[in-house]
Amino acid sequence: MVETIVGCKWSLTVFQLLAQDINRPGEMVRHVEGLTTKVLNQCLKRNVEFGILAKISYPEIPPRVEYHVTTFGNKFMTILDALKELQQEIEAQ
């Protein structure tokens, strides 16, 4: 699971967007240059399958979908933050 999520170059970007309360796919694509809807949807789908994100679909026209970090996702992101800090320490040496 970790290899799949970290191996996707957009997963960490998606997590950063969610931390900024950008939780709708269209909004995510508009905020990140080079991110396509197709790639974003694949990334979001994998994160939902692993239980890191929750998908909420609203019964509206036009359809509205939002993604939110789950409790498990928060724990997972804590690990990613620790890895990022470790990487920064290594680079500082």
Provide a short characterization of the protein structure.
With 93 residues, the protein is α+β, with helices and mostly antiparallel strands. It has helices at 2-7, 11-19, 25-31, 37-49, 71-92; strands at 53-58, 64-69. Helices cover 61% and strands 13% of the residues.
Write up this protein.
The radius of gyration is 14 Å and the shape is globular. The termini are far apart. The protein has one domain: Winged helix-like DNA-binding domain superfamily/Winged helix DNA-binding domain (Arc Repressor Mutant, subunit A, Orthogonal Bundle). Strand 1 (53-58) and strand 2 form a beta hairpin. With 93 residues, it is an alpha+beta fold. The chain has helices spanning 2-7, 11-19, 25-31, 37-49, 71-92, and strands spanning 53-58, 64-69. A two-stranded antiparallel ribbon has the order 1-2. The protein has five helices and two strands, in the order ααααββα. Helix content is 61%, strand content 13%. The longest helix has 22 residues, at 71-92. InterPro entries: HTH_HxlR, WH-like_DNA-bd_sf, WH_DNA-bd_sf. Pfam families: HxlR (PF01638).
